[in-house]
Amino acid sequence: MTDAANPIAEIEKRKPARSQWWDVWDQFRSHKGALLGSIFFVIILLAVIFGPMLWHLDATTIDIRSRNQGPSLAHPFGTDQLGRDTFARMLAGGRVSLAVGMTAMILALFLGTLIGVLAGYFKRLDGLLMRATDLFLALPLLPLLLVIIMLFRDRLSAQFGPEGGIFILMVSAIGITSWMQTARIVRGDVLALKEREFVLAARSIGTPNRRMITRHILPNVLSPIMVSATLGIATAIITESALSFLGLGFPPDFPTWGRLLFDSIDYLQQSPERVMWPGLAISLTVLSVNYIGDGLRDALDPRIRGR
User: How many structural domains comprise the chain?
Assistant: First the structure.
């Protein structure tokens, strides 16, 4: 039977070509954990962005008469030792923690991608850049961050203000100590791509290195970069929370989830829920981001997507 006599074949021919991004979405949607993680992460983002504008209490308003109260209709998460609303401070702290996590992730992703592409594409740079990567991987992360913060905190705070200086310091410190895994992953993919036929064909017609990287290499390493981005957010949030929990983060009147944990230690016996709220926020946000990364890894891998 010819195609002209087969109406089903004619209909299939007239259908527009299906974009591979629809296949990616279908695979991502089939990962229940990634889908639930995405919904929860979007809810958290909307809450910390618009919540402080809609909630009637300010995170910095002090009311000594209402201090150390438990959950109530007026204060759903209770109040702290100065009578400040814990729910308002949770919203404000989430905005800061997520801003630090995302900004530090962008910096780490830029450094890791740059070093990984250069090391994988230019053979003469490979040894030097990979040895530098191994050196950073060998350094103990938390002590190194503590030293960086102790050395530069006062200078940056004096120049950019307490909040702005600490924000720049935290983002820079976390970013420059978190790029190594991305660099190694990107380097491995670039080494494999260099031997592919389309790259060899582009090189044979004299394509310059800059165009080769931007048009042929980078678009084909977006998959590991996107997965590293999601996992980098989780790592940055945990690192910022750990530093704030140690008292080396933002000032006391500038809440973050880690700072709220630090401030609640002395009231653990009296009000254990004050520790529970920021701890749950950190844990669930990191868990949702990890599930998103897991779903993206499966969706962007053509070997898994085709199953």
Answer: 1
- Mind listing the pLDDT tens digit for each residue in 277-304? 888 998 899 899 888 888 887 777 655 5
- DSSP string for the chain: --GGG-HHHHHHHHSPPPPHHHHHHHHHHH-HHHHHHHHHHHHHHHHHHHHHHHSSS-TT---GGGTT----SSSTT-B-TT--BHHHHHHHHHHHHHHHHHHHHHHHHHHHHHHHHHHHH-HHHHHHHHHHHHHHHHS-HHHHHHHHHHHHHHHHHHHH-HHHHHHHHHHHHHHTTS-HHHHHHHHHHHHHHTTSHHHHHHHHTT--HHHHIIIIIGGGGHHHHHHHHHHHHHHHHHHHHHHHHTT-SS-TTS--HHHHHHHHGGGTTT-THHHHHHHHHHHHHHHHHHHHHHHHHHHH-HHHHT-
How confident is the model over 25-35, as pLDDT tens digits?
777 778 788 88
Q: Is residue 14 part of a domain?
A: no
| 171 found inside a domain | yes
Residue-wise pLDDT for 66-78, tens only, equals 888 888 888 888 8
User: How confident is the model at residue 1, as a pLDDT?
Assistant: 46
Nearest in space to 232 (alpha carbons), one of 289, 183, 301: 289
Tell me which residue range forms the domain holding 240: 39-51+84-300
CATH of the domain at 95: 1.10.3720.10
